[in-house]
Amino acid sequence: MFLIIEGALFTYCTKHDEILNLASPGTTSTATGTILTSIKGTATVLGTGQGVWDGTLDAAWANAPSITASATVPSPGNNIFTGFNGNTTNVTMQSMYDASNIYFLFQWNADQNNCASSPWYFNPTTRLWAQEAGAPVLNTDGTSFRPPFIQDELVMAFDINNSTPEFTTNSCYGACHVNTSYGTSTILGGAMWTNGPSEFLDCWRARTTQVLNENQASDCSITWDNGELNKQSVPADAMIKTTDGGFSNKQSLTITGKKTKENVPMYVYPTGYSIYPNMKEGPFGAMYQGDTGVKAFKVVAVDTMGVLTLINGAKIDPNTAASGTNYQQVGMGDGQYCIPGSVVAPYTGSRADVVCNMFYTGSGWKLLFKRALTTADAVYDVDFSSLKDQPFGVGVMFNGADNEHAIINGLTLTFQK
């Protein structure tokens, strides 16, 4: 089971120090059961810098058999996943491969096209800037909540060389552990790691902010690491390494005329943003790192009224009549000038092995994966060149869900010989 909290893969479980074991959601298929067959064929997948995908599929996909599985947000109890329990979407999966690469096509229903991660807004009452939460904010009655402002996502996990015995039957649940330091006395927290130093899971994270802007998924892994999450292999969102994937658009500045500090955006596009996908060009829900200092200017000061001063001398005043509510929370959403919480840049090294395209159809997502059959990372990347059966699992985050994700387990990839 996949869950992203504080930049890592975590999950909630229900019993002390135990692997989560849930029944597989119901699955319907035009192939055989939960077996996804990859056939011989080649797909077009745009790489980094090659533009925005328009959703057009190669004719070869019409020959690839599909399986359609119902991905459902589970209800582990203890108010975990409140507000999302039982949310369901149908996920259709297809695959092809050629002499060099393997390709996956995922399609699923989603009423929303979330591609912004914790954007900044101005609070006119406190005169302070703040970020929307990446998880639901519960009201005092414990039932209703302000939705999270988090990007949609799909995650795949593969067992490397059949190294993780639990994966065959439990899929990614076999790496779910509970009562770690991430838990509390009232909510059982858990983390993703395998059960021994020789067990490795290959993990592909396709997050809309990175995919729409850079045509990449994050090629990471889940390992043992002495019983702790390998935070280097499953890195944060936004990343702290400015040379690899971007960074959080956040800094702390001393308020002009005071000794106290305030968290504010680090960079601002004075001309506004493209929050939603399917525009001719981005960035979508984020800033490009390459734009910093060129189109996006650094915030160098903030005053007691929340006015931001940029390095070029320009000012962002959220209090004017012209600004209106554009920088504020508006109902359950944000004004059109609210500032992205992430700065994106291309992944590098082995983390850049998975090329990925994404398109919102108006009622759901299309998602393309491409990766070489073999990579230079023989330890943490699954090798598809042998064309052996490969168990895998899927986690789907949609309609404002992140921690509260839908899950599909018990899947097996086979190959047309």
Look at the structure and give the mean pLDDT.
Answer: 80
Please report the distance between the alpha carbons of the first and last residues.
Answer: 31 Å
Please give the oligomerization state of what you see: single chain
Task: Kindly provide the radius of gyration, computed on alpha-carbon positions and rounded to a whole number of angstroms.
Answer: 22 Å
Net shape: globular
Low-pLDDT sequence parts: 1-33, 178-189, 229-241
Helical run tally: 2
Summing up helix and strand content along with how strands pair, one would put the structural category as: mainly beta
Tell me the β content.
25-35%
Main beta-sheet annotation:
12 strands, mixed
Task: Please characterize this protein's 3D structure.
The protein is an all-beta fold. Helices cover 3% and strands 34% of the residues. The protein is built from 2 helices and 31 strands. Strands 3, 4, 5, 6, 7, 12, 15, 16, 28, 29, 30 and 31 form a 12-stranded mixed beta sheet that branches. Strands 20-22-23-24 form a 4-stranded antiparallel beta sheet, with no helix packed on it. The longest helix has 7 residues, at 208-214. The protein is globular and about 70 Å long. The two termini are 31 Å apart.
